[in-house]
Amino acid sequence: MRKELQVRVLPEVAGQYEVLKTHVSKVEKIPLLAIRHIQILHRSIDARQKVIYINLTLVLYIDEDFQPTQAVPPNVKNVINSEEVIIIGAGPAGLFAAIELINQGLKPIILERGKDVKARIEDLRAINIHQTVNEDSNYCFGEGGAGTYSDGKLYTRSKKRGNVSEILHLLVQFGATPEILVEAHPHIGTNKLPDIIKNMREYIRSCGGQIHFHTRVTDLIIDGDRILGIKTLKNETYSSRKIILATGHSARDIFTLLNHKKIAIELKPLAIGVRVEHPQSLIDSIQYKCDTRSPYLPPSPYNVVKQIEDRGVYSFCMCPGGVIAPCATSPGEIVTNGWSSSARARPTANSGIVVELKEEDFIPFSSYGALAAMMYQKEIEIKAWELGGKTQVAPAQRLLDFVNGKVSLDLPKTSYSPGIISIPLNEVLPKLIHKALVRGFKAFDVVMKGYLTNDAVVHAPETRTSSPVKIPRDPNTLEHIQIKGLYPCGEGAGYAGGIVSAAMDGMKVARAIGTNI
Asked: With helix as H, strand as E and coil as C, how does 341-381 read?
């Protein structure tokens, strides 16, 4: 017999199987020996009060043995001779689109400008140690996309875009821990994602699909209002009447190409700010209201949103026990982001703290048309690079100094490998962003007392929160509104905001293609 129930228990109960079993036995008045197994379906932390509880949804196996199911990859389907669909980009949108195309009986041809997921590590090391930026292989470009080496968080609020559970179950089939099906805010970690991405690639190829690395798309072949194929930097031509554009939020060359060819794109406001690093122990003490975090609690995240003069100022991509990474995609710019390994065991916590921008903020760049937000973004990154000494050394300031307008005489140790240099960040950031951040940090400290401290350090800038453009598409066919057969997809096209939502959009577009054949 099986019984599903919900319990609210202390962390030390939730974190010890036998203790949890004893607790459930007493509460439910079920003999301990009758409970053969407890399966956890869902787990979340309630840290709103001084005493912290764990909410669990459980299935009790009473006088019945539990048979765990083994995750196996989807069945191999032979599409080697099927109609070909080109996918530009091997991030989550592109990879999940490829898997769904196979389900639809179509053959995916993925063209990725960067390297395979393991080879990318060489270029990440180069930017961290030697401050050398490879324009095709970095934290944003390469197999797996930006999320692979910048944390792998799987939480999304975009439930309306598709089936979140479907994406999580597919990730488990390709090697992710089943724990992501349980946690309220699932996370894989940068140390685990590469193997999962590799398994997805091998599956796509085993079905007859193709993935071509070192293949940067430089032109679209269009006849009238119909896409016919693409050209690459290596002067290759790939022909197809169906092309998925899944290039990610940093593909400035593609945005520029579309604009140059007068293919409709739209300015999309985004959020820009800084990345702040605190000691993880401090964040734990604030969030868990304790001096020392219980061993049965994970490193604490935080999520704060404040309205400052009708602008949102909020935390973004918060990484408990994580690292700040240099995420530039071209020489001559500085971009910061963050990541955590699966254990989230580093001594520091970091988060983007960003300011909501509006269309009117980009008026000074209006001569760039739909690329105005991109150029606004780019100008900040270049200024940070110049002030940092034309290296990947990032301008930085202690947090309290930032708020009080003081120059930091020294800086704490940081997880940002290229290093930091003390520079007043009002010299890097536009006035409206700097002003909103100052007020935002003060507001944060009201709800997270102790957050505003000089033990924290502010790194600039955090600019790649989302795409600076939107590529409009027909809501029914999902084709570009102007070019038939061209399917804008994922975060770079303005239809997603992270791994899960990008994956859902990729599958959605692939299904639309299958339906329209």
From this structure: CCCCCCCEEEEEEEEECCHHHHHHHHHHHHHHHHHHHHHHH
CA distance 260 to 253: 10
Distance CA(238)–CA(220), nearest Å, equals 10
Q: So what's the pLDDT on residue 155?
A: 63
- pLDDT at residue number 185: 84
Helix (H) or strand (E) holding 13: helix 11-14
CA 481, CA 477: separation in Å to the nearest integer?
9
Using DSSP's 3-state secondary structure scheme, residue 500 falls into helix
Of 293, 295, 327, 286, the closest CA to residue 135 belongs to 327
* Identity of the amino acid at 92: P
Enter the tokens of residue 467. 């795409």
Q: Which two tokens stand for residue 122?
A: 């060489």
Distance CA 276, CA 458 (A): 4
Which 3-state string (H, E, C) describes 421-468?
EECCHHHCCCHHHHHHHHHHHHHHHHHCCCCCCCCCEEEEEECCCCCC
Q: Let me know: does 85 contact 241? Beta carbons within 8 Å.
A: no
Strand ranges of the sheet holding 237-239, from the earlier edge strand across to the other edge: 217-223, 226-232, 237-239
Cα dihedral 16, 18, 19, 20 sign: positive
Query: CA angle, corner 515, sides to 509 and 517, nearest 5?
Result: 105
What phi, psi does 164 have (nearest 5°)? -60, -45
Q: What are phi and psi of 439, to 5 degrees?
A: -70, -35
pLDDT at position 38 is: 96
Cross-strand bridge partners of residue 381: none
Whether the predicted model's global pTM rises above the 0.90 cut: yes
Q: 10-residue block means of pLDDT along the chain (517 residues)?
A: 95 96 96 96 92 96 89 90 98 97 97 96 96 96 87 61 84 92 85 92 98 98 98 97 97 98 97 98 95 94 95 96 96 96 92 98 98 98 97 98 97 96 98 98 97 98 97 97 97 94 96 88
SS (H, E, C) 73-115: CCCCCCCCCCCEEEEECCCHHHHHHHHHHHHCCCEEEEECCCC
pLDDT at residue 342, rounded to an integer: 85
Q: What is the pLDDT of residue 39?
A: 95
Are 317 and 337 in contact, with CB atoms under 8 Å apart?
Answer: yes
